[in-house]
Design brief:
single chain, about 260 residues, mainly alpha, Helix Hairpins, globular
């Protein structure tokens, strides 16, 4: 992005926050009041990426950038930092954590997996973690449950509290599923066991190197796409799915799936 475009965005946000001539809603906001917006916009971006909707991806990237500009303007008004400071900090981080690209003395060619490990190693060194620090205290309470679970398990894994292999995690999934099945009619216990199952599935996603947020959003999109097609077929056949039995609906569902596979 051209610097003039960034400057224009910063100026627009500055005007929106002007105490006399600005937008009443924008003026009232602070870091806490709009914190949730960044998460919501990130999810909307993931949904657009999942759909491969390029126009919507562009729009959602803009909405996410808005949150960066918004928080930077609030910080500038509080005399803590501004957008340029954000860019400078990010630039330094990218350079320091990619010595294989920017350090002329780094001659070894590394893989993507090795780069990821190198990034985390440098990150830990930069943070200079206090050994007296209580585990999980840096994890935000505002994260979504899935994101929070990912962060909790990531931190525990750093202290070697994790399964050694993917197969071990699969075994734990089966164990939790059986426990849930055995107490399914006891609501309070079932809720706890269902939570345990979700927690282990998120760990399994980590071992499979799959982002659970993206996986569930992909499943959401697939289900909606197939259900809309099911409704379309039913309408063409003058069938009312609300009055159909589950066997008929299952047949229609399988028909939709077969139609997708034949494309």
């Amino acid at each position: 992005m051209k610097s003039s475009n960034i400057d224009q965005l910063i100026e627009i946000m500055s005007q929106l926050r002007h105490p006399e001539r600005g937008c009443p809603w924008d003026i009232e906001q602070d870091h806490q009041s709009i914190a949730h917006c960044s998460i919501e916009e990130a999810y909307e971006l993931v949904a657009a990426i999942t759909r491969n909707d390029q126009d919507n991806i562009k729009e959602e990237l803009g909405d996410l950038l808005l949150q960066v500009i918004f928080h930077s303007q609030i910080a500038k008004e509080n005399n803590t930092f501004d957008f340029n400071d954000v860019i400078e900090a990010l630039s330094q981080k990218l350079i320091s954590r990619h010595p294989n690209v920017f350090d002329p003395n780094f001659n070894k060619k590394i893989s993507a997996d090795e780069q990821s490990k190198l990034w985390n190693k440098i990150k830990e060194k930069e943070k200079k973690q206090n050994t007296n620090k209580v585990s999980f205290e840096s994890i935000s309470t505002s994260l979504s449950p899935i994101q929070k679970s990912k962060e909790i398990q990531k931190e525990a894994s750093k202290k070697n509290f994790d399964w050694d292999s993917t197969e071990d995690v699969f075994e734990k999934v089966y164990e939790e599923l059986n426990e849930l099945k055995s107490i399914q009619h006891k609501k309070d216990l079932a809720k706890e066991e269902l939570g345990d199952l979700f927690f282990v599935l998120i760990n399994l996603a980590k071992h499979l190197q799959i982002d659970p947020d993206i996986a569930i959003e992909s499943a959401n999109q697939k289900f909606m796409r197939r259900f809309l097609k099911l409704e379309e077929i039913s309408k063409k056949r003058n069938q009312n799915i609300e009055n159909a039995n589950i066997d008929n609906l299952d047949e229609l569902w399988e028909e939709v799936k077969r139609g997708e596979k034949s494309l």
